[in-house]
Design goal:
This protein has one domain. It is built from 13 helices and no strands. The longest helix has 31 residues.
Amino acid sequence: MIQLYIGTAVICLTAVLFLESVFPLLSTPAPLRRWMRNLGLSALSIGVIVLFPLLFWALLRMLQIAPGDGRFALWNVPVWGQWLATFLLMDAIAYALHRLSHALPWLWRLHAVHHSDIELDATTAHRHHPLESLVAAVVTLPVLLVLAPPPDAVFGYSLLALAVSTFSHGNLRLPIALDAALRRVVVTPAFHRLHHSALRAQTDSNYATVFPLFDYLMRSNSAIPDDGGSRLRIGLEVRRDASSQSLAGMLLAPFRLDRRRNGN
């Protein structure tokens, strides 16, 4: 399972970076140092991310809870329905936690590390503070333990979220019609790029991870610029200096107090 997750991450990252070189939204030289910093932060977080489905499975066994013992089974949900419900539920939790991360100062301190990237490409998808990944696991696990969905469905969603997140952070220029069609069902690069704008009104919108359905339902989506967001100022208004962009700077960022909301 660990090998499959890491293998999927490598394949998705390689594929999107290749597509960025062929269909870039912005033509920029390969920022190797920035890539290494983002992936270095990811390496510190990946233990939590990879072990999440394994921890769920282990807790089910330790608590002697079988997938057939949870609420899904009591409600007589068929297996295909449990898979669909698991995907929607986990994406809904991700959406809710994402919105809270923009609303609660102590969560924003962690999440701002992701937003502090001053460029946007596939590696940004992996730029998360380890403590943010831990918070997500702590919030999600109790819900899953109560419902006891199929562990394979939990892992399947993790793989789907990984693939879509890597794609949606890509520095990609899709045909307008294609992007508009895709973002009816899945988060696209243009849809998510707006979320990484330095302008707060845009940053506080388009929160979805996989399914933009939740943004549409909660009316938290913003209009996508015709240029796909190529003229947006990416990142925060603070933490744009070299020391803040270093691996050490990103790890220490949540424990530093900045005066403006974009950094605190």
